[in-house]
Amino acid sequence: xxxxxxxxxxxxxxxxxxxxxxxxxxxxxxxxxxxxxxxxxxxxxxxxxxxxxxxxxxxxxxxxxxxxxxxxxxxxxxxxxxxxxxxxxxxxxxxxxxxxxxxxxxxxxxxxxxxxxxxxxxxxxxxxxxxxxxxxxxxxxxxxxxxxxxxxxxxxxxxxxxxxxxxxxx
Length: 170
Description:
Order of helices and strands: HHEEHHHHH
Helix content: 55-70%
Distance between the termini: 48 Å
Structural class: mainly alpha
Shape: globular
């Protein structure tokens, strides 16, 4: 199948979810489980904000028990719609998705859930939900941006630490 690069604009979340499903199947020779898909979508969104300052797609995450979920993607996953597509996404989006997949796709879904529970955006949405008798579980984009900046800072510190380690060995 020939792919034509998408040039500009925000990606469609359905395309990103389908692309993750497709790439996961290519890498691991099996379909991705739903929990992992939602966590990878969240980490892709966070990395996009950290690297570019902008979200990759326009979708609202909900702070469910096991971490961030996009309800519309849940319905499409359940129907099998996402598995049968190989969408075209921009080169910059391919890079970000590949980076997240390299780092996290091989991890257990429950581990990704635990990692997502450390995110400020999930914690604040869950707190609001508990305070409002189960309402208000949407994760605020401003909180996801805060998570992205924390992630970026951790990456920068890790890079400095690795450079220090390299110099210490020499």
